[in-house]
């Protein structure tokens, strides 16, 4: 039953995690977790619930891992290990504009596990030689490309075209997608001009608020690599509903504490 | 005279930037910039001053670049290009603890231009095979190693030992250095315990405040790579005296706007 559902998930490219219990009498018990539903039972309802939550967190990151819980799912417990196998297609990062900076951004995208495509209408700039880390280098008009490209909630759009002529049509298309991140590079003034142009052509403030501009976290990035760190940080923070800032300044638990523990 | 001083800088491994004017009647005029002093003249005092500031910013990042100014150093001007050649040894990143996460952190360190060394007392873990991106993998006690390692303001210390037995002696040594970044991984509780132990052995609050713990920016990092982004962002933000929130939430100019413009 669970394997049939898993086969369905794989056939329809739906993200799914298969959880297998590794300890105790119910060793081998299985759970199939989707973003919005789950099937199966790991032995106790607490463990099933905790493992479901953890599996969804790993689905969001596209990661497979072993996690350890108490018998009833206690997060600090060490009784039961579960193996959480994520079946998730890699998310897409589309970088619009084959400028010098695109190379550093493409490398960062690969580091974070994205399938990276760079799109530029100019064949001289959009070359694999200039962008060795990109999976795809595509010569196309950015808005035309995006209008027919696969986009879902995990898709990241990074707009480096930096020219109202190109980026306004592109932003119009971007706002019609469900992309999880829409970032546009430029100064505050450039972005204010963009907002004005989008408003004039009927985009609402709520739509415009989906655009991260100026792009990135406020870390004072100076180099292309540092700018890519700033953008990567914002992509992750938005996905996790965080505002950035230093952990030392906050009081919430460190989100990755369990991960860090698991790695030690 | 300037070349002699440059030779001195190179011989003593002191960071230095050689600035050359590329436009106008004083084309070829030169300026040698150290962190705390400068020699030479680019034509106007405003231009000399602006180029000196910019050269120091590039020294901090270890970067060489062309910058454009007005004739009297106006930042938005386009009259004069200057070539700023930084002569800076790569900064050191020391990662203490060869845990699984160290691999992702080492790769991030290389991406940002550090010479990366991973130090661990356990020969089974401290191997080049487990840490392919590290420049050096060193089997040594962390505190012994750091007591004799070269450290300056650009040096980054990342402490992953995650065990009071190792990390308290190491933090004592770290606080005696001038390292620009001292980060220690662990939960808020782990870090509270560390602070307590350091206080008991006489460290002041001002000293303890140099330690970034919990380490990193609050982006909800889930994977080793995302955690490395969070730490990299904090390293840059601290160097630049930024707090790491989203640029979209701020009102200050985007620090890298000139860089971004130069790249387009």
Quote the distance from N terminus to C terminus of chain A.
36 Å
Give the integer mean of the pLDDT values of chain A: 90
Instruction: Give the CA-based shape of chain A.
Output: elongated
Q: Look up the CATH topology of the largest domain in chain A.
A: Rossmann fold
Number of helices of chain A: 9
* Spatial order of the strands forming the largest sheet of chain A: 8-7-6-9-10-11
Question: What percentage of residues of chain A falls in helices of 4 or more residues?
Answer: 25-40%
How many structural domains does the protein architecture of chain A include? 2
Report the strand count of chain A: 11
The fourth-level CATH homologous superfamily of the largest domain in chain A is NAD(P)-binding Rossmann-like Domain
Spans of chain A of at least 5 consecutive residues whose pLDDT stays below 50 are 256-264
CATH architecture of the largest domain in chain A: 3-Layer(aba) Sandwich
Largest sheet descriptor of chain A? 6 strands, parallel
Task: Provide the gyration radius of chain A in Å.
Answer: 21 Å
Structure overview:
The structure is a homodimer of 264-residue chains. Chain A is an alpha/beta fold and 264 residues long. Chain A has 2 domains: 2-89, no CATH class; 92-239, 3-Layer(aba) Sandwich (Rossmann fold), CATH 3.40.50.720. Chain A is 38% helix and 19% strand. Chain A has 9 helices and 11 strands. Chain A has helices at 2-11, 45-61, 100-111, 142-148, 164-176, 188-200, 205-208, 224-239, 257-263; strands at 16-21, 30-33, 38-40, 65-69, 80-87, 92-96, 115-120, 136-139, 156-159, 181-184, 211-212. Chain A has a 6-stranded parallel beta sheet, with helices on both faces. Chain A has a 5-stranded antiparallel beta sheet with strand order 3-2-1-5-4, sandwiched between helices. In chain A, helix 3 crosses helix 8, helix 4 runs parallel beside helix 5 (164-176) and helix 5 (164-176) crosses helix 6 (188-200). The longest helix of chain A has 17 residues, at 45-61. Chain A is elongated. The first copy, chain A, starts with a helix and ends with a helix. At the A-B interface, helix 2, helix 3, helix 8 and helix 9 of A face helix 2, helix 3, helix 8 and helix 9 of B.
